[in-house]
Amino acid sequence: MTQTASHPSEQDYVMRWIRPDIRALHAYHVPSAAGLIKLDAMENPYTWPEALVEEWLQHLRNTSVNRYPDPAGRQLVTRLRSVMQIPSDQAVLLGNGSDELIQMMIMAVAGSDNVIMAPEPGFVMYRMISGFTQTRYQGVPLDPEHFELPLDTFLAAMEEHTPAIVFLAYPNNPTGNQWERASIEAIITAAPGLVVIDEAYAPFASDSFMGDLGRFPNLLIMRTFSKLGLAGLRLGYLCGPPALIQEFDKIRLPYNINTLTQVTTDFALSHMDVFSAQAALIKTSRQALATALAQFPALEVFPSEANFILVRSLTGKADAIFEQLLDQGVLVKNLSPQGGALRDCLRITVGTEEENARFLTALEIALNPGS
Ligand SMILES: *Cc1c(COP(=O)(O)O)cnc(C)c1O
């Protein structure tokens, strides 16, 4: 098809109608992992036992998709409440991944000069979604040496910026550490607005604020099934005071949790022992991997309460190590391009024992090229 000279081009429409701040963005890049050992995205490396797959398929056979899903996912929420021990006086909101919950919360406070605040380096979605919704975002730097949460600095930043929502990933991504509980409690108490504890890594962590719900009227707990082993289904959940959850629920798009996700996560929750055993195995492997990594004098290994380990190249070679691992078929996350305190850092998701062993062999070669 030819185009008449007078008709605007695609690019003309983009320039005229798409917001400049959106045009300036780069789409979230997910690298291809085809044929690689995939240790970049905090997925659970284990699939389901055959008997469980068979039982699941039976459930799916009895599921029909001609009707819309239950908009509130009631059966799933009931099961979640009991398995995850969500306090009964707290409300639950389901999201298409916790990313969608972050989006709902930020949309609910967006505009009118409200501020979203989070420690940095932290989970990128808090900043990105603030940008999409034209909401002010204020990062507060962690201590660049050990990624500890500087409480006084954080309290001062809250005083200065009066954040509508503070996001605290506990444990933190991409650093893997779990900050001091006393600091978190001090932030919840002093915060002028809402505090969301993002417990995406709860299956691997030694502490949780789930039991603290109800102690604070501004506290919300967000979790996801992604890191536990169901990343492909996209299910996150937000627990907190009913009055707040009710407002976020108004922004939720109808039927945001599809039928297959509802049925499958409900099924998975009735077999939590399988997933808990996988999480326990991952924690054991994490310890072994951390010990092995600590043998490399050229690396600094950071403590982790999550299913990944952050390391820093002490010789400034993160980019080269990343590429040499890739050449050997291992994909990790290179955080060095993000700069700042993450310069020379790589994030390695804990894989199966075999994957970890192959990674360590590749790393040995990457750290000693030409030898
Ligand atoms: C992975 C991750 C999420 C997003 O999880 P989804 O449920 O897959 O959207 C949220 N918060 C943190 C800190 C994460 O690392």
Detail the topology: elements first, then pairings.
Layout: H1 10-17, H2 20-23, E1 37-38, H3 50-61, H4 74-83, E2 91-95, H5 98-109, E3 115-120, H6 124-132, E4 136-141, H7 151-161, E5 165-169, H8 181-190, E6 194-198, E7 219-224, H9 226-230, E8 236-240, H10 242-251, H11 259-269, H12 272-293, E9 299-301, E10 308-313, H13 318-327, E11 330-331, E12 333-334, E13 345-349, H14 353-367
Parallel strand pairs: 1-11, 3-4, 3-5, 5-6, 6-7
Antiparallel strand pairs: 2-8, 7-8, 9-10, 10-13, 12-13
Helix pairs in contact: 4-11, 5-6, 5-10, 7-8, 13-14
Bound molecules: pyridoxal-5'-phosphate.
The site of pyridoxal-5'-phosphate (PLP) has 12 residues, from helix 5.
Describe this structure in words.
- The protein has helices spanning 10-17, 20-23, 50-61, 74-83, 98-109, 124-132, 151-161, 181-190, 226-230, 242-251, 259-269, 272-293, 318-327, 353-367; strands spanning 37-38, 91-95, 115-120, 136-141, 165-169, 194-198, 219-224, 236-240, 299-301, 308-313, 330-331, 333-334, 345-349.
- With 371 residues, the chain is α/β, with parallel strands linked by helices.
- The protein folds into 2 domains: 10-48 and 274-367, Aspartate Aminotransferase, domain 1 (Alpha-Beta Complex); 68-271, Type I PLP-dependent aspartate aminotransferase-like (Major domain) (Aspartate Aminotransferase, domain 2, 3-Layer(aba) Sandwich), CATH 3.40.640.
- Helix 4 runs parallel beside helix 11 (259-269) and helix 5 (98-109) packs across helix 10 (242-251).
- The model has no long low-confidence stretch (mean pLDDT 96).
- Bound molecules: pyridoxal-5'-phosphate.
- Pyridoxal-5'-phosphate binds at residues 42, 97-99, 123, 169, 173, 198, 200, 224, 226, 236.
